Amino acid sequence: MVLGLASGYVSLTRAHEAWAAAFVSEEARIAAAIGKHIVAVEHVGSTSVPHVPAKPILDILVGMQDFEEARVCVGAMLTLGYTYRGENGIPRRHYFVHGEPRTHHVHMVEVQSEEWRSTLGFRDLLRTRSELASEYAREKERLAESCSRDRESYQREKGKVVERILFEASAGAA
Length: 174
What we know:
By secondary structure, the protein is an alpha+beta fold.
């Protein structure tokens, strides 16, 4: 199976070339359902970065003009089989999950938001700086081993790694 991970667990898979094609397919389904409300759709998360192991779940960032107006998309996303989780800890984000085991996460945010900029910025940093991507991969593998049955701890600790990498990258650029 190329995609899918039981809720609550952490297991990393080697980067898989089918992830890009799976994104294109899902992007088309989302665009068909809510395209007139979308500004942009991006493949983000580790499945979008070559050579980085990832939980086999596609993260999709959907850019919208306005958080409140984006509520009209919830019903259409439900018809695609997604479950709506509200903001789920990130203000002004509509968050959707698909499947059990989980196969897709959709993060619907405003294109002018810090969440949009930082998510794309981190993805692009890892795509262009192989040494940072390798460091991130090592840290993810270490965390996945120690937090295999505790996704919340994994996410929290991985967030600290992301912050450190971003800080180091910005310090190096200064």
